[in-house]
User: Which sequence fits this backbone?
């Protein structure tokens, strides 16, 4: 099987077929007539067969082989045009579906507002939202199973850390607040000293939030007694609301009046540094689809406003 002729030469051949004259084809292509003649001669030499009958003073005539070759070339160029349209669409990030992973509290408290805003702005690819914790989502970003991961980081040394496997975009800091159950009839706020005699709720022993709690407590010289362990923030909130424990919760979780009902912030002593967790967007290296950049910008705006 012969290799495919040069596309530039094929384009010259089609121009000659359409115009019926090498001179007219040359004018249309911006070539000198001799260049067109050389292209056709090279094509016939490469194919090993005559494609055009040249008669002085008359229009060119296609041979039977020329007619067949012209049809095949038209088909090739039509397919090439469709391929280029598809490739351009992909290059312009016109993608049917994007997979976005996010931790549960972001799915319930951050993403609904952001996705509603995004949907109102434009028609774009369908966004498939996947509930996933940060440590589970990072390998999926690396493998390509996810296009974006909305992640959290409690401690600077925790993943996601800088890597060639992904691009990290800081979205903002989400404050962490110490909360306790609201006591009916109580007129003064709960203070940290009172919490030291109570039970605490936090993540499991090696979880990032638990390690942050112990680091913070060590700096303050206190020893919180964690007796209730769960990774689910809504379960933590339920335990705190029931008066079973006190604990650190992301401020976003308490943003709604319904979520904040039954709990109150514990007053910390003057000079105690506030705690937070970093919220990050993690994607593969390279240029991201515009809709991903829009989503990241909207998340950054929400978190920036909430973190001030």
Assistant:
């Amino acid at each position: 099987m012969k290799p495919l002729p040069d596309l530039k030469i094929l384009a010259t051949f089609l121009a000659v077929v359409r115009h019926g004259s090498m001179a007219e084809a040359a004018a249309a292509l911006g070539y000198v007539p001799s260049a067109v003649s050389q292209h056709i001669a090279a094509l016939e030499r490469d194919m090993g067969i005559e494609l055009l009958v040249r008669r002085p003073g008359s229009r060119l005539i296609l041979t039977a082989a020329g007619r067949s070759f012209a049809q095949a070339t038209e088909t090739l160029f039509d397919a090439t045009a469709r391929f280029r349209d598809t490739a351009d669409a992909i290059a312009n990030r016109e993608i049917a579906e994007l997979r976005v992973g996010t931790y549960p509290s972001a799915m319930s408290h951050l993403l609904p507002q952001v996705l509603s805003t995004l949907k109102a702005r434009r028609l774009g690819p369908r966004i498939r939202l996947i509930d996933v914790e940060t440590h589970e989502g990072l390998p999926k970003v690396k493998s390509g199973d996810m296009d974006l991961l909305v992640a959290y980081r409690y401690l600077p040394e925790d993943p996601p850390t800088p890597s060639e496997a992904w691009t990290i975009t800081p979205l903002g800091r989400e404050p962490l607040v110490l909360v306790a159950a609201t006591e009916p009839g109580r007129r003064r706020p709960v203070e940290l000293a009172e919490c030291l005699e109570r039970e605490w709720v936090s993540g499991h022993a090696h979880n990032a939030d638990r390690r942050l709690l112990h680091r913070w407590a060590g700096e303050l010289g206190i020893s919180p007694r964690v007796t209730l362990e769960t990774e689910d923030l809504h379960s933590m909130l339920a335990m705190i609301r029931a008066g079973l424990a006190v604990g650190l919760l992301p401020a976003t979780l308490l943003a709604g009046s319904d979520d904040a009902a039954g709990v109150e912030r514990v007053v910390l002593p003057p000079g105690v540094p506030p705690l937070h967790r970093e919220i990050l967007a993690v994607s593969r290296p390279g240029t991201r689809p515009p809709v991903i950049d829009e989503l990241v910008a909207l998340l950054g705006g929400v978190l920036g406003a909430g973190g001030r």
Q: What stands out?
A: The radius of gyration is 33 Å.
